[in-house]
Specification:
By secondary structure, the protein is an alpha+beta fold. The protein has four helices and ten strands; from the N terminus they run ββαββαββαββαββ. It has helices at 24-34, 63-75, 107-116, 137-147, and strands spanning 2-3, 11-19, 38-46, 52-60, 79-84, 89-101, 120-124, 128-135, 152-157, 161-164. The chain starts with a strand and ends with a strand.
């Protein structure tokens, strides 16, 4: 669980419901780049309604500028709803695929690490294992740090997806 109640927090997770139409994503991303916000991660997928997509965007920047961006986004005709999780309890996950060198003497260690991190081996080659791990960014970074000395060949990360927690 993430509780980001600090007003000075520079990391923002926005979840937007938008019309599932061409060009909407580029217009949304343009608002951020135009204001000097770097987008750290961006995930887009259809919702339960095929006419609506959810954009989950992680960016760092000034809170006042973010407020301006959110107001402008809410005025876009294709934006249905913008939710800022900065002041909210939310659940966040990310997935990474990691191709790690699997020397015979390291294979048991790799499998132990995978087990500890509730990761799984999704591909086995003669020289490399490909592992899948899901969790928050901290868990994934810790997993990568442990695997690094063994030799990581490639990494693919999804970026964050997030949903607000239900009010109790």
């Amino acid at each position: 669980m993430n509780n980001n109640h600090n007003q000075e927090s520079r990391r923002h997770i926005l979840s937007m419901l938008v019309d599932n139409q061409p060009g909407v994503l580029s217009r949304v991303a343009g608002f951020f780049s135009g204001r000097g916000f770097n987008i750290d991660s961006l995930c887009v997928s259809e919702t339960t309604d095929p006419l609506v997509s959810r954009i989950t965007l992680v960016a760092e920047g000034d809170m006042n500028i973010l407020e301006q961006i959110k107001k402008q986004l809410n005025k876009l005709i294709n934006v249905i709803k913008v939710m800022d999780f900065t002041e909210t309890d939310y659940v966040q996950r990310e997935t990474a695929l990691v191709k790690v060198r699997a020397k015979p003497e390291n294979r048991a260690e790799i499998l132990r690490m995978a087990d500890i991190f509730r990761s799984r081996v999704v591909d086995v080659g003669t020289e490399f294992y490909t592992l899948e791990v899901t969790g928050d960014g901290g868990k994934i970074n810790a997993f990568l740090k442990l695997l690094k000395p063994l030799g990581i060949k490639e990494i693919a990360r999804t970026g964050a997806v997030a949903l607000a927690r239900e009010r109790k």
